Amino acid sequence: MALKHKTPMLDELEKGPWPSFVTDIKRVAERKPMAEDLLGLLEMSYEHKEGHWKHGGIVGVFGYGGGVIGRYCDRPDLFPNVAHFHTMRVNQPASKFYTTEVLRKLCDIWEEKGSGLTNMHGSTGDIILLGTTTDQLEPIFYELTHDLGMDLGGSGSNMRTPSCCVGKARCEWSCIDTQDITYDITMRYQDELHRPMFPYKFKFKTSGCPNDCVAAIARADCSIIGTWRDKIRIDQEAVRAYVGGELVPNGGAHGTEKRALDIQKEVIDLCPTKCMEWDGKNLKIWDEDCTRCMHCINVMPRALRPGLDTGATILVGAKAPILEGAQLGSVVIPFIKMEPPYEEFHEFVEKMWDWWMEEGKNRERLGETIQRLGMKAFLEATELQPDPRMVNTPRYNPYIFYDPAEVPGGWSHDPKAYRERHHA
């Protein structure tokens, strides 16, 4: 079927080696006029080097302040089928587990009442349903809630849809129940999710272990990262098997051929705190120096496992660059058990929000408010005690001067030498 809009510039995007969104839209455009007009509008935007969407007013479903992103075309005379092109965010299940039945019903709803275009998933995690008209918003919402038991996600200056990694459902490293934590946050903070009340957006992301597969530390205003506070469990026989070439390193991620692991080069020398030693027979870990980076565990998964006293580290303030540039999360609670009913965590969250809503400027993320007013003000408001683990780069303070000769026992940046003195 020939499309009515000529799209020479978009056609160029189909020529590369990677799958193209243009090809996907063209496929849908063969049966959906809304997708066909979207192609024409995009081509005009590329030609004019400006977007052709206008704000046009607030749209949504009754009782909700978020979940629908209003979108109107500024040239409805040329592209009438995208005069309205609203996006709906749907709250995804924790860890994005679906049955095929639910996916089929979801697609059937959107095929009938929307453009047929979806994004599985947006960067926050939501199911993104791209393009429908104002009169279809309430019918779609009714079917989502009544037929599928699903709800809209967050948009605007509210709590965005919480997201998490696969957690204990399929990952042996997960130290916390990421699905239960995400469900608890979602259900407890319904008002904050659906009714914008914050200075700007707020994201919770939960990772079951320090590998942080949802990149919470880089993207979430509040990151919940599974960890442990006892010793890494070691199977010395398995360590020797890796060194002897009897096991495949890295869990087979870099090839499934068995090979002798150079434990000094591939594990010990890459440890950020140099907390490991290998004497040719046994691996020694100085757990008090370990920062739980997971590298050694990832390289030798049959030999090393997280400890049994598990919980979470809470970080705040991460964001992508908008106003003040990209920021990583800062540790504020080094360890919390994170077990139901999560009351200790909720007390912290509510103090944090109270302070941010009082002190935050319009369109200022939590991390930017902390950056502007200082971590000291944040810790006082949330009644947290300062801790050395909250410092961005411990041991690198340029305002401390000393003469090594005057330090009792001398001073060394060599962790092994330090341990020999203090762990003798």
TrEMBL record:
Cellular compartments per GO CC: sulfite reductase complex (NADPH)
Protein keywords: 4Fe-4S, Iron, Iron-sulfur, Metal-binding
Domain Nitrite/Sulfite reductase ferredoxin-like, residue spans: 83-144
Residue ranges annotated for the Nitrite/sulphite reductase 4Fe-4S domain, each copy included: 155-383
Any one of the GO BP annotations: sulfate assimilation
Record flagged with keyword NADP: no
GO molecular function: 4 iron, 4 sulfur cluster binding; dissimilatory sulfite reductase (NADH) activity; heme binding; metal ion binding; sulfite reductase (ferredoxin) activity; sulfite reductase activity
Record's protein name: Dissimilatory sulfite reductase alpha subunit
